[in-house]
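Newbie here. three chains, one complex. Structure please?
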Amino acid sequence: MTKVRVSTCSLAGCFGCHMSFLDVDERLVDLLERVEFNRSPLTDIKACESCDIGFIEGGLCNQENVEVLLQFRKQCRYLVAVGACAINGGIPAMRNSIPISDCLEEVYLNGKGLANQLIPNDPELPRLLNQVRPIHEAVKIDYFLPGCPPSADEILNMLQQIVDGNEPSTSHKNIRFD
Amino acid sequence: MDHVQLAKGLLLADPWTIPPDPQQAPDQAAEYNQQVTRFCTDLCNLHNQNPNQLLQILIRIQYRFGWVPYAAQSILSNDLKIAIGEIRAVIAFYSFLSSEFQGRYRILLSSNITDYMLGLDNVITACQTHLKLSPGTVREDFKCSLELTSCTGLCDQGPAGLINGYPIKHLDEHRICELAQLVDAGTPFNQWPEEWFEIDCGIKQSGTLLNTHIQPGNAISKWLDKEPETFLEEMKQSGLRGRGGAGFNTYEKLWAACRNASGDQHYVVCNADEGEPGTFKDRVLLQNHFQQVIEGMTLAAWVVGAKQGFVYLRAEYAFLLDQLNQQLERYRQKGWLGKAIGGCLDFDIQIHMGAGAYVCGEESALIESLEGKRGIPRVRPPFPVECGYLQQPTLVNNVETFACVTAIAMAGAEQFAQCGTVKSSGSKIHSISGDCSRPGVYEWPWGISIREVLHQCGGENAAAVQIGGPAGILLPKSQFDRTLAFEDLPTGGSLMVFGNHRSPIDIVSNFAQFFAHESCGFCAPCRVGCRQMQHFCQQLQDRQIGSSDLESMKTLIPLMTQLSHCGLGKTAPLAIQALFEHWPELIKEAETTTDGLSFDLQKAVADTIAATELQP
Amino acid sequence: MSQVLTIDGKDLAFDSGDTLFDVAQAQGIYIPHLCHHPDYPPQGNCKLCTVDVDGQSKCACTTQAETGMSVQTDSTTLTEYRRALTELLFSEGNHHCPGCERSGNCQLQATAYAQGMTYSSFKLLNPQRQIDASHPSVLLDRDRCILCGLCVRASAQEGKHIFTIAGRGSDSTLAVNSDSGLLADTNLSAEDRATQVCPVGALMVKQQGFRIPIGQRIYDQGTIDDLGNRRPQYHSPKSKTARIAGDSDD
């Protein structure tokens, strides 16, 4: 039996959703009989190859996030937005009401106790977006799993339903934004 | 109330004085504040400290000083016994009021789609070049400010605007260049070229209403010796329907209902808040046929038993105030307004100014505004005919409706109903603008086809027309055989013609922007819905809309039409709905591919790039 | 009690002057709502309580009951409208649930759960709004305000008239009636109904953070359909009896 190929990544997130996923604990062993992980912190594969499912944690805060997301969208049949940050920008999006130039100046130029004030401008560094945006504003997202983080049960449930070929649904009772 | 004092025009000959800085010029600042204090105290006295007059007082302060200074706010709070927060809430609601000084010359550019079609973009660029002003800013030297404003009712003479309340037409780069010199020199308005402000009535086709010119008392005197019931019966026979757009049966829904409603006082209100973009026929009626309006209102007052009438005049038409008040005064002097008209009727009319809010065209919002509050539409029922101004039965009719009443009074119902269709009797005045060779005001019997309209106004090359303004119907060429009548295409009198070269997406986006600017903000579906519609339209214009955005857009249309509190929110998505219906191929073209970005990455990082490059 | 209408197929008697909301509530039929509280005059601005009356959409809290009306409080279409409305409300403000002390006790959030909303399909507008932290015991965070006007009405009824809605359209804001425009310069207290009646986290009593852990809050126990519109009861931070309890007051 060919295994269902899954990739996961965290964009502008805290990896908390990944940590929550690890709470599936020993159920991971059963899961690995049907699922194989491609790009994911679990495997350390750097680029996402053709996959069945992509789990995205975190929102879009810089150019690199956008690039990775576009790559995931190209490679994955189904994309799942996991957690508050992917869904509405989450905590990082609290900067959205402040102009990005103000944020940069405060952090790198005017903040207290700074030496060698400079806004990092190495071309290697991804540029920040003027606002942190949810991922569905950039690409089509197939399923949404809210929560900060969503519980391991919810993540597993979503994954299993997609693997089983069912239309995944989150029971209203289990939707949580916190 | 002192009619003579309050009747004075609002517009000053001189540009406003820059408020002196209390730090740098304490004496002048104190002098300025004293002026404000004196003016406000006098105004409050003149209005008998009546809190219902708040808006009237505010608009007079605004036109006197170019803003509502803080000192004014606290005096009003004291004298009218209104909390200062409430006063600020009202100031923030109306576009024409401001709690910050807007410059010696406040330039408002009409931003209707027809203004853009006539070159508004060039005018804006010219303002940036010659006035060093971008829309939404006050120049640092406080000499002038520039804003985009909703349609000013000069669509046949656009791009149009208002300067300190003075209407100005046919703007172009040359005129802005000349204007910039006058602004820099601080020239008083009476030394500006007169022809800039001469507003053309633009009547291209007259009928029953526009051909009538009466002398004071002509219509009233024919009826006052009879019983009011006889005229009510005449109204019934005429089949007259409201000319403001909704088209209620004037006799049944309004006059009879208001007459039968019990209350301590009855009021008659003329809705001259002609805010529907593309409409300017009421302006022409007020300019040339106000007597017919006065007499229509008087007859209405006689029938429903009102002693007080109001004309709610939109702020954009403040330049007409002087002339309208003079006509009212003439009527008073001749005994056709005031006490014992025709020996039997006490009735007078006062003009109330609006202050820049489209929603106040909705009758219950208009009444709230008459009471000096923010123009938030009321919960209906009860309807104004039962519970309106100061909770009393109030009859609200459009300017043209009252002119029709006079026509009925003069010629009789039978004559009036001779033209038109079965369900739409009489004639209708239309404001025609856009891509046609003869824009202007036309009066035709109801039932005329769009094709015929376009033939007469020189718009044969039209690809689409907008009927009844942004809240109305966007009609593609294939439906030009339809007719203007309540049974087919109802209209309040705005008709905008769009040629082949116009993009329906641009048209609809302009309307979406208008609604987002004018939503009163009371109910969630309209307040947020209009804002989201504006965003979707921007995405359509940028050709960067995703399939899921389109789905959300489609959900929003019925949500707004079904759930909104008043007509504004209910009609706001209609043009977008028409876009989906008649031009689906344009939407398809604007859609990004499924996997593509639906936002502009370059734009999204531009601010960061600027910040990193700007640093030392 | 001679007047009868039907709600969701049930014949129900009502008194004249009752709104559809009153009739439904008396029967324990829950209609989603955020801007309404039975103690205050209805306004009908959130439109969540929109129901179907003989094929027409009507706002339950402002529509007078009439004999013979046939009312549907729920349908696929109504749920769709309500979910989209909730999404609109989320898109309008800055609602960061994970960083909000009201999370779990929030009626907007609970309504989103009940309507099956997992995300907002509308553009998040991220407005810039003023926070007013000037008052010693009450915080006004306009980022979370949904302009329901309940605090305005409650404060008016208490005779204090502290709040008002200012401005127009999407620029409307909850304004404070003091010369400085700040809460510190009003006589608002944490115990005022105006403070307590807020359905979201816009008006919050200070120094209450995490007294009840996430997971044990009102809508962690059950859905808003079952529990009704509840709000935690706050006491002034100085009060020794400080506690938070689910307060079923709608």
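Moderator note: The CA atoms of residues 6 and 46 of chain B lie 8 Å apart. The two ends of chain B are 64 Å apart (CA to CA). Thread marked as resolved.
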